[in-house]
Amino acid sequence: MDDTILERARLGDDGAFDELVAPYRRELLVHCYRSLGSFHDAEDVLQEVLVSAWRALDSFDGKSLRGWLYRIATNRCLNHLRDNSRRPQPANRPDDPAGIGPAGDPWWLEPFPDTLLGARDDGPEARYDTRESIALAFVAGLQKLPPKQRAVLVLRDVLGFPAAEAAEILGTTAVSINSALVRARDGFRPHRSPEDVPLPRSSAEAAVAQRFADAFQHGDLERVLAILSDDARLSMPPEPIECNGALAVADYLRWRGFWGPDLQLVPTRANGQPAYGYYLPDPVTSQSRANGLIVLTIDHDHVTTVTRFGGPRLVTRFGLPEVLPHPSADAPTGPSAHPR
Questions:
Q1: Which of 156, 224, 140 has its CA nearest to residue 189?
Q2: Sequential pLDDT tens for the chain (340 residues)
Q3: Which regions of the chain does DSSP assign to beta strands (E)?
Q4: Residue 261 DSSP SS3
Q5: 228-235 and 302-310: which strand pairing?
Q6: Quick one: residue 294, left, alpha or beta (phi over 0 = left, psi -120 to 50 = alpha)?
Q7: Is the pTM of this model over 0.70?
Q8: Cα distance between residue 156 and residue 4, in whole Å
């Protein structure tokens, strides 16, 4: 940290302040996202964090800017969770195909664009590396912990802050931090480890994702079933829908009808995982319009989880277009267009 830049920022130079906090913006956004599970809420809270830091810059002791910013961010996230603890749940929809049970994902869960991921933010005491701790299932699991336990687990096991520094961030004691950490670890069970999955952007991961996308886009139920693991799961936050088992997932896809030759998929990445923006034909124009995002969890050579998020604005957040030209009517479609 350049003391000259700090002094200029303290004197009211907003350009100097931006330069001061720029190295931490992305990791603070990821931190807020892990804590809140919602990309939209994380963006809003990050803005509050930066405004608070700007106003409180005179109180910064000049020692650890990163730790000071994390203190503000963590407490802003806790305030946000406290304020929203009684927010109304969305109304349940009366969907009842076979295999659908109560949704296991929090309804506010949203995907995080890989393009906004920063450098590694885990320290020497971290249990989880950045790749694992941004995975969709990991973030969803965090939301099931009480807010303070969630904050402690993120600070200690994800970011690797020592107990004393985590205690300073939360305004408590190291003893209290260690006690909360034990309870958080007992209540948090991520269902997979990095050793179970292909490395992000590896050829193995890309091959499985492409096989699924190809079968999905062409409505080939047999090939979709072959790619899904036996215990595959589908969820669609914020809808209270969960399908467990490959047959239940395939049955739901067939019943819902948002797949097949009229669908267009555009690859992207979310939460360190393969993802696709999906587009459906506009009945009025010759275009296809963004309809949502599909995020895949891949284990070895199978897809274990399909998480579908609806909404065109979510798709454009990933840098994808809102509309696409509709495929030519004489282009090959259906299962026969792709050899098994």
A1: 140
A2: 678 999 999 999 999 999 999 999 999 999 999 999 999 999 999 999 999 999 999 999 988 999 999 999 999 999 999 987 655 555 554 443 433 344 568 889 999 999 999 777 788 889 998 889 999 999 999 999 999 999 999 999 999 999 999 999 999 999 999 999 999 999 997 655 555 556 677 889 999 999 999 999 888 889 999 999 999 999 999 988 899 999 999 888 888 765 667 889 999 999 999 999 999 988 888 899 999 999 999 998 999 999 999 988 899 999 999 999 977 544 444 433 333 2
A3: 100-101, 228-235, 242-244, 264-270, 273-281, 287-299, 302-310, 323-325
A4: coil
A5: parallel
A6: beta
A7: yes
A8: 32
Collapsing DSSP states into helix, strand and coil, what is residue 305?
Answer: strand
Rg (CA), the chain: 22
List the one residue out of 261, 251, 282, 270 whose CA is nearest residue 309: 270
Q: Which phi and psi angles does 298 have, rounded to 5°?
A: -120, 130
Using DSSP, state whether 216 is helix, strand or coil. Answer: helix
Query: Within 13 A of 269's CA, how many CA atoms are on the CB side?
Result: 16
CA 46 to CA 41: how far, in whole Å?
A: 8
Largest CA distance in the chain: 69
The closest of 30, 5, 10, 31 to 20, measured between CA atoms, is: 5
Cα angle vertex 93, ends 137, 80, to 5°? 50
- Whose tokens are 């690797």? That residue is 160
Give me the DSSP letters along 145-200: S-HHHHHHHIIIIIS---HHHHHHHHTS-HHHHHHHHHHHHHH---S--GGGSPPT
> What is the SS3 assignment for 229?
strand
Distance CA 143, CA 171 (A): 22
Structure tokens at 204: 């193995």
Please state, in angstroms and as integers, the Cα–Cα distance from residue 174 to each residue in 43, 150, 229, following that order: 30, 16, 43
Q: Is 275 in contact with 111 (CB distance < 8 Å)?
A: yes
